TrEMBL record:
Assembly mode: The Tol-Pal system is composed of five core proteins: the inner membrane proteins TolA, TolQ and TolR, the periplasmic protein TolB and the outer membrane protein Pal. They form a network linking the inner and outer membranes and the peptidoglycan layer.
Function: Part of the Tol-Pal system, which plays a role in outer membrane invagination during cell division and is important for maintaining outer membrane integrity.
Chief subcellular location: periplasm
Similarity remark: Belongs to the TolB family.
Keyword match Protease: no
Lineage per the UniProt record: Bacteria, Pseudomonadati, Pseudomonadota, Betaproteobacteria, Burkholderiales
Signal peptide (from-to): 1-21
Protein name listed in UniProt: Tol-Pal system protein TolB
Taxonomic source organism: Massilia rubra
Location in or out of the cell: Periplasm
Keywords, in A-Z order: Cell cycle, Cell division, Periplasm, Signal
Amino acid sequence: MTKLSTLILTGALITGSSAYAQMRVEVVGVGSNQIPIAIAAFAEEGVAPAQVSAIIRADLERSGMFKIIDAGSTLSESSPVDYGQWKSRGADALVVGSVQKLADGRFEVRYKLHDTIKTNQLSSMTQSAQAKYTRLSAHKIADDIYEKLTGSRGAFATRVAYVNENRGARDYRLEIADADGEAVQVAVRSNEPIISPAWSPDGSKVAYVSFEKRKPIIYVQDLVTGARKIVVNEKGSNSAPSWSPDGTRLTMALSKDGHTQVYVVGIDGSGLRRVSNSNGIDTEPQFSADGQTIYFTSDRSGGPQIYKMPTAGGNAQRVTFNGSYNISPRVSSDGKTLAWVSQRDGGYSLYAMDLASGQELRLADAATEPSFSPNGKYIMYATKGGGRTSLAVVSVDGRVKQRLTTQAGNIREPNWGPFMK
């Protein structure tokens, strides 16, 4: 380790504090067909360290899929429900619940979801959690509501990894936060750059590139124990790690043979093999959802474009044809959508493509480094504005947009984590 590299690693994540400001979320767009839903204050929720009903309300509002109706009252899951009253107030659904502090110090959170149109109960849930996981209980309830009312799994209880950098102070942090930007924790801190964080499929580890040894080296770190190991440290550049869907392999870009190409390796560093073969630069590899294909960026046609090839290697097929500069491919978890960044009209824009039809949709401008939510409904990306880099989120149909900002630092390289087991 060099004198300029002071890497902080602990047996667990370093809890966020006032020094690491929480991200602020601003919703700047909504879905076309919002579901009107009333969310009552939960009975006795003041005993918990977090207001459960407020977190649920913020989650659903942030998704852009719901029109929140202020219930104006406190209702527990055992309160009688006047369906006609709530229907007359324009609510198609009603959320009620309660919080109780248990003798062992945990908090029990109960909730029910009512359908005011069909006048019946749609769902219910009871969770017991330590104080620090109260927010997670609320996110899980929001996930349940989202799934019951939209038919798609919610992603509020997931986490995101990103790099928070202050180059002037030589301060680089790999941070982990809830999907709403709260509960920020520091996984790695260094005064040398950290780039390309990538979640393991089970959410227990993150692969990333660190320059602490004055060259890019790929590490994998356990987020529970803090233990980490070097997976790839070949001659030249080691960059852009991405996990296979089964969590047994990484694909990455290495320049060990003179020019950058795509390789695959076991997560223990064994079985390294080259899978791309061109005279150009092949980089930014990503496994497909089924693990059978690798998407990557290559300049083999004269300028950077997106290609795909079998995981075992072989002939590569070009995927993008519009625009002369297309980079950073990402594939949704259902394998249906490709997101990437294209330089057109003098700027970098985020695009999405339906892989079945080839139809493209321009989602956002001033965008780099996209990452899909695990349900495939949203894409997080880095964006520049006001001389700083922050994060933003857009739905795959382009209708719902959010901005996530902090008071300090440049936030970039987002990677949206998987569903928690």
